[in-house]
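User: Quick sanity check before I run a bigger batch. Here is a single chain. Can you write out its predicted 3D structure?
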Amino acid sequence: MRVIAIVNQKGGCGKTTTAANLAGCLARDGARVLVVDLDPQAHATLALGIDPEDLDENLYEVLADPGGAGRLREVCIEHAENLLVAPSGIVLSALEQRLAAEPVESRTDRLSAALDQLNGEFDYVLIDCPPNVGMLTFNALRAAREVIVPLETSFFAIHGVQKLLETIALLTERIGHDLAVRILPTLYDGRTRYARQTLAQIREMFKDMCFDTVIRQNVKLREAASRGKPINAVSRTAHGTIDYNALAVEVAASGLEQPAVAPTEALEGSREVVVRFRDSAANDVRIAGDFNGWVPDRGVRSLIEAEGQTRVWTKILSLPPGTYEYRYVVDGEWREDPDNPEAVSSAVGGRNSLLVVR
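Assistant: Done. Predicted structure follows.
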């Protein structure tokens, strides 16, 4: 059971949007997912169609009493097939005061103890944290092994997340276990030079910590939240659906044990295959497919050249004969190959280009 905390002390950066829509995409792909809403504002609860005012009990009953851990499954509500919600409510804001007299270890391991009672019933637990680093967030970090930090593509957001990462590092020492932290660029408007430059700065600063997926600004994400549904249940073609489907693929791939060598280098009888992507505006282009576990540019040699005002990314792969599916990741956006008319529908939305090696 992978427990992932979605954390940022800054509000409005896409924590709840990510929790609800990543959960929807993972569940649609067949994974069993639980969304734990630790924010007293209960936005994740609302985004998944549950009115906290209509509930007689929520996470407060689970976390407030030492014996409440076994009640987590009782308060969970089914949103859709494979997707359940552990709801929040404003009463959760009183939890810190309720537990103030208890030892730190006792009051910050309540959620971890509750999740242990689930006995691996779920494939993923996504924890939507409040916009601060208080006791509720500390509970999430103690329970989790992975952290996603949604990061708005702006200068001030970058400054704030650097401080957050320092805080997480300090908390990790106190928690006593390592946390795998990944940065997710959000609210991206690729039409502006500022956003493109900021995204490039984020990638340069955080390097491999960054997801290749970027979440674009998309009004349909707000519309879906107002309807109490994940975006993929509202529109299969919206940018939000495409982006969160791509994130779901990347999250699922990151949980798999990676081979010691890239698959393109490990197979005998391989041929050198060259593909090219041309664009005058792109800053970063990578390739991902079933030949490298959908991890962009893993096992791929890259060259960048110029043809007048157009930049050309050359990708060199070593592949045995067969048919492969792939996409380019262009400044964080997953795209078909514009020069390849051969494509098939993807199980997680959009279309994958086809590469035939003879």
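The domain at 2-254 is CATH 3.40.50.300 (Rossmann fold).

User: Great, the batch can go ahead then.
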